[in-house]
Design brief:
Radius of gyration of chain B: 21 Å
CATH architecture of the largest domain in chain B: Up-down Bundle
Oligomer: heterodimer
Strand content of chain B: under 5%
Order of helices and strands of chain A: HHH
Number of strands of chain B: 0
Structural class of chain A: mainly alpha
Shape of chain A: flat
Distance between the termini of chain A: 45 Å
Strand content of chain A: under 5%
Largest sheet of chain B: none
Order of helices and strands of chain B: HHHHHH
CATH topology of the largest domain in chain B: Four Helix Bundle (Hemerythrin (Met), subunit A)
Radius of gyration of chain A: 24 Å
Helix content of chain B: over 70%
CATH class of the largest domain in chain B: Mainly Alpha
Number of helices of chain B: 6
CATH superfamily of the largest domain in chain B: NADH-ubiquinone/plastoquinone oxidoreductase chain 6, subunit NuoJ
Number of helices of chain A: 3
Largest interface: A-B, 55 and 57 residues
Largest sheet of chain A: none
């Protein structure tokens, strides 16, 4: 019952796992051995020494962006079957289908315009306005 | 081969699901949730529901899981100091778990499943697209309004929160 194109997907995943393990495994074999002393176990961030714990509370605005991302993710899911079927239905109902999707997108663009106009997206500006904020603004 | 892949996905789903529930570290639980969701996506693909598999991968693994990890990052509790749930909390939790299990078990057992080997269509996406754009055009457009409401609702909820934050900083 396993269709052939799923077998290709599975093969792709298996190759991905294999490739990642190959790269890391080869590094493990060839790299010089050393035990964890000094700064060896410190997480690497562009050569800078990390400050504090990684368990900080992130700003709630990240959550808002993630929520908007999910909404547009769902929008993409709705566009996908439309795009898959567009070519085969084009001679019969091409313009109708196009208008249908444009209405769908227009309604969501309305939401985007709303959050944009209300300033929910420009949180970088609002962050820079206040001095001495204790929050961590970037990962 | 097909059976083996099915058991592999099923095992992955169940094992990582157990890990989600029993892991003390909430970040580890969140990451193993990824394997649970991916296993479910694999099971969908094996059932011939390719659209569901894609949706599962894109929305749940790509979106909801990110949201879950964001929530983890925004919680105040570090992983080590999780409050130990007292025994009285475990009793109602156990009762409800058993009840839900019983209901689901009864529903699954009482349903007459269509076990005849029906040939699954090669790709369900084009059929879904056809139905969505002709017969179910109203629900399709309605879905965009629901999404719009969700977006505005989220913006309003967080905006109230933002005002609190600003006041906190100014005072």
């Amino acid at each position: 019952m396993l269709h052939e194109h799923y077998a290709v997907v599975l093969l792709f995943i298996l190759f991905g796992i294999f490739f990642a393990n190959l790269a890391l495994g080869a590094a493990k074999i060839f790299r010089p051995r050393s035990n964890r002393v000094g700064d060896k176990g410190v997480s690497f961030e562009c050569g800078e020494l990390p400050v504090g714990s990684a368990w900080v509370r992130f700003n709630i605005r990240f959550y808002l962006i993630a929520l908007f991302f999910i909404i547009f993710d769902v929008e993409v899911i709705f566009i996908y079957p439309w795009a898959a079927v567009f070519k085969s239905l084009y001679p019969a109902l091409g313009s109708l289908m196009f208008i249908e999707m444009m209405v769908f997108i227009a309604i969501l663009v309305l939401g985007l315009v709303y959050i944009w106009a209300k300033g929910d997206l420009d949180w970088v500006k609002t962050l820079s306005k206040r001095d001495g904020n204790k929050e961590v603004s970037g990962a | 081969m097909g059976d083996m892949v099915f058991y592999l996905f099923a095992l992955m789903t169940v094992l990582s699901g157990f890990f989600v529930v029993f892991s003390k570290n909430i970040v580890h639980a969140g990451f193993s949730l990824m394997f649970t969701l991916f296993g479910v996506a694999g099971l969908f693909a094996m059932l011939g529901a390719d659209f569901l598999a894609i949706t599962q991968t894109m929305v749940y693994i790509g979106g909801v899981l990110v949201l879950v990890l964001f929530v983890v990052m925004m919680t105040r509790i570090p992983a080590q100091n999780l409050p130990k749930s007292s025994f009285n909390r475990k009793i109602p939790a156990g009762i409800f778990s058993v009840l839900i299990f019983a209901i689901v078990f009864k529903v699954i057992g009482g349903t007459e499943w269509n076990v005849l080997p029906v040939d699954a269509p090669e790709a369900t996406i084009s059929m879904i697209g056809q139905k969505l754009l002709t017969e179910f055009i109203f629900p399709f457009e309605y879905a965009s309004i629901v999404l719009l409401l969700a977006m505005i609702g989220a913006a309003i909820l967080i905006r109230e929160r933002k005002i609190d934050d600003d006041e906190e900083v100014q005072s």
